[in-house]
C-alpha cells in the first residue's frame, strides 16, 4: 500500500466533497484522529476494512485510494450514497448499481435506489 497516495487521495476527495475530517470519520466509522494520520501519510498498513469504509464514504474504491486501480472514478448520486452508507454497502455493490442500465426513470431518492437494490440484489451478490 502506498501511504502517500492514500494520503493524497483521501485529502483531495474529502476536500472535493467539502466535508471535514470529523464528518469523514463519522461516515467511515473511524476516529477523526485516524483520518488525520491517514491524510498526513503516517498510516503505513491500513486494513482493507478501513480502506473500504473510507472508499464508501468518499465514493472511491480501495484500489483508487491506494493508487492500485487507476480507472476513472464513477459518479455516485447523493441519494445512492446516502442509501449505501445507511445500509453499509460495499463499494463494489454501489458501483454495480450505478452501472446497471436503467430503462425509463433514473432513481433520484434513497428509497428509489433501495427499491432497485432489492430487485437486483440476488444478482449482485
What would you note in describing this structure?
This protein is mostly helical and 125 residues long. The chain is built from eight helices and no strands. The protein is elongated and about 45 Å long. It starts with a helix and ends with a helix.
Please count the beta strands (DSSP E, at least 2 residues each): 0
**How would you spell out the order of helices and strands?**
HHHHHHHH
* CA gyration radius, whole angstroms: 15 Å
Oligomer description: single chain
Unreliable parts: none
Intertermini distance: 27 Å
- What spatial form do the alpha-carbon principal axes imply? elongated
Name the average pLDDT.
87
The number of helices is: 8
Jot down its keywords.
65% helix; mainly alpha; 125 residues; 8 helices
Brief rundown of the structure:
Helix 2 crosses helix 3, helix 2 (21-28) crosses helix 4 (48-58) and helix 6 (78-87) packs across helix 8 (110-124). This protein has 125 residues and is an all-alpha fold. It is 65% helix and 0% strand.
Topology:
Elements: H1 3-17, H2 21-28, H3 32-39, H4 48-58, H5 62-66, H6 78-87, H7 91-99, H8 110-124
Amino acid at each position: 500500500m502506498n501511504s502517500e497516495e492514500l494520503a493524497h487521495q483521501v485529502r483531495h476527495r474529502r476536500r472535493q466533497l467539502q466535508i471535514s475530517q470529523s464528518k469523514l470519520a463519522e461516515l467511515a466509522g473511524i476516529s477523526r484522529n485516524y483520518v488525520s494520520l491517514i491524510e498526513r501519510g503516517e498510516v503505513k498498513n491500513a486494513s482493507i476494512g478501513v480502506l473500504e469504509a473510507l472508499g464508501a464514504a468518499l465514493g472511491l474504491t480501495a484500489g483508487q485510494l491506494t493508487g492500485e486501480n487507476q480507472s476513472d472514478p464513477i459518479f455516485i448520486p447523493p441519494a445512492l450514497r446516502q442509501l449505501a452508507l445507511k445500509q453499509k454497502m460495499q463499494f463494489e455493490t454501489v458501483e454495480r448499481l450505478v452501472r446497471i442500465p436503467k430503462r425509463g426513470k433514473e432513481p433520484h431518492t434513497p428509497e428509489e435506489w433501495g427499491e432497485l437494490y432489492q430487485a437486483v440484489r440476488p444478482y449482485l451478490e
